[in-house]
Amino acid sequence: MRRCRALRVLAPMLAVAIAGGCASVGDLTGAVAGVATGAVTGNPALAAGVAIGVSAAADAGAKYVFRNWQQAEQDSIAATIGAMPVEQQQRWEIRHPLPYANEHGWVRVVRVIRTPLAECREALFSVDDDARQQRAWFLTTACRQDAGWKWAAAEPAVPRWGNLQ
Fold first, then answer.
1. CB burial class (10 A; 0-12, 13-18, 19+) of residue 81?
2. pTM score, two decimals?
3. What PROSITE patterns would the database entry show (predicted)?
4. For residue range 39-55, what is the model confidence (pLDDT) as tens digits?
5. Burial, 64: exposed, middle or buried (Cβ in 10 Å; 0-12, 13-18, 19+)?
């Protein structure tokens, strides 16, 4: 009987998580783990503790993966910027180990910035959305380092900053 009740609780949560996308992965896994623990042990305090712990671990893991993917995208664009002459346009793309969030677009170096401390290049780059047939353009800076060209544009760490970005 407990399994049927747990299944009735978990099915709507799964549907909500699928509709919510990646932002709800931690919440969903925490809820599933908490409900399962509560159904097995009958201890609501233990279930709540498991739910919170699993949710935090899943959120941290997802953020780590997406942060590494974003860095790989930025490194790909920066390497393309460093390898090309000014005012030419070239394609860039990134292929992740999992076939998710693979991006591509175009890069055009618009200016070289040479100082005694660093050589940098300012570039326009696009991210193409083939499904919608849209192309969004952005401006960034890449600088030469010992290990190659690296992304040099600072970005806000959290989206909740809103107008403060």
1. buried
2. 0.64
3. PROKAR_LIPOPROTEIN
4. 777 777 777 787 788 77
5. exposed
